[in-house]
Amino acid sequence: MSSSTNIAIAIDRLIAVLFPLRIRITSSRSSCTIALIWLFSVAIASAELFVARAAEVYFQGDIVKVCVETWEKPLLGLIYWWLNTVCLCFIPFIVLMVTYSILVNVLWKRRAPGNEDTSRDQLAIRAKRKVVKMLLTIVVMFGVCWTPLGIIIMFLEYNNDLVFTPGSKLMSIYIALHWLAMAHSSVNPIIYGFMNDNFRDDLKGLFKKLRLFSSVRSASTEHAP
Fold it and tell me: Of 7, 68, 129, 198, whose CB is crowded by the most CB atoms within 10 A?
């Protein structure tokens, strides 16, 4: 879901920059986009309901339970994980690189109308540099978080004979990379918080409203009969 959301955000930004007056993202379109993201995420993960089973394996003198996939044909499992990895890792990474590269190119070439003003132009260049750094950071962090998981998943699919049991080094690596991919959901808000002034201002405004609402509510409770 994090991958699909990043694609939607990247395309939305590209449309807003390239066609600021022609196309407007309305609330209804946003709702439809969110619904499609949820449907796609549920659909691509629903296969696990039919093939994932708990099994008991003998490991280091004990019998432990592990989750295994029981595909009728191994080829189906390979196709599923190829689609999963391509759709959730490689395609989003390519889309982010392409869309944000176009955005950086357009924003960097864009000039403010009117006569030249040294101080204004310097401020504009600094603002552009901030945007470029933020977009580059978003792309790099997506690649760092998601690409290793996609690689190890495909590696395991083509090497079924490897020891993949609880406590093994391979299992530890897989868990660490899976955790890294899932942690990406919290990465973008942190990036925006450190690198986007508008995001920080909006977040501060939200906290002020919440604090004001809390104060008004506590005051009304105290004066209630």
Answer: 7
